[in-house]
């Protein structure tokens, strides 16, 4: 979040907030005039994610926590059409369920 001070003579609307002249309000990054949103953090290379499936089930399971949801979906699809190991598929599903439960609290 960034702060915006309205130094104009009229009301300004930023990020769903009405900011009266002279007022200062927090607004999401990238909406403050003259700023840009932070660039997204680069994730692992998709080819490197799929190469993870060449490892053993315990090694794959241990690495799942470092992957994004999109990487997990890629990994799940690749495993389902590849070696189709029940342990890997179950670990991916468990990680996605864990994240869904943590996000809902």
Outline the structure in words.
This protein has 105 residues and is of the alpha+beta class. It folds into two domains: 1-39; 46-103, no CATH class. The chain has four helices and four strands, in the order E-E-E-E-H-H-H-H. The chain has a two-stranded antiparallel sheet. Helix 2 runs parallel beside helix 4 and helix 3 (69-81) packs antiparallel against helix 4. The longest helix is centred in the C-terminal third of the chain and has 18 residues, at 86-103. The radius of gyration is 22 Å and the shape is elongated. The model has no long low-confidence stretch (mean pLDDT 87).
Features:
two-stranded antiparallel sheet, 105 residues, 42% helix, 13% strand, 4 helices, alpha+beta, 2 domains
Radius of gyration: 22 Å
Largest sheet: 2 strands, antiparallel
Q: Quick one: overall form?
A: elongated
Structural class: alpha+beta
How confident is the prediction overall: mean pLDDT?
87
> Which parts are unreliable, with pLDDT below 50 for 5 consecutive residues or more?
none
Q: Separation of termini?
A: 22 Å
Helix fraction? 40-55%
Strand order of the largest sheet: 1-4
| Count of separate structural domains | 2
Question: Helices, strands, pairings?
Answer:
Elements: E1 2-5, E2 12-14, E3 17-19, E4 24-27, H1 46-51, H2 57-63, H3 69-81, H4 86-103
Antiparallel strand pairs: 1-4, 2-3
Helix pairs in contact: 2-4, 3-4
Quick structural overview:
Helix content is 42%, strand content 13%. It is of the alpha+beta class and 105 residues long.
């Amino acid at each position: 979040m960034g702060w915006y001070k309205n130094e104009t003579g009229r009301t300004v609307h930023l990020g769903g907030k009405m900011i009266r002249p002279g007022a200062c309000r927090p607004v999401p990054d990238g909406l403050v005039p003259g700023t840009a949103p932070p660039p997204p953090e680069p994730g692992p290379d998709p080819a490197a994610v799929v190469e993870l499936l060449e490892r053993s089930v315990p090694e794959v399971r241990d690495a799942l926590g470092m992957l994004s949801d999109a990487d997990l979906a890629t990994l799940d699809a690749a495993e389902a059409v590849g070696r189709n190991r029940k342990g890997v598929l179950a670990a991916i599903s468990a990680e996605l369920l864990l994240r869904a439960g943590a996000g809902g609290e």
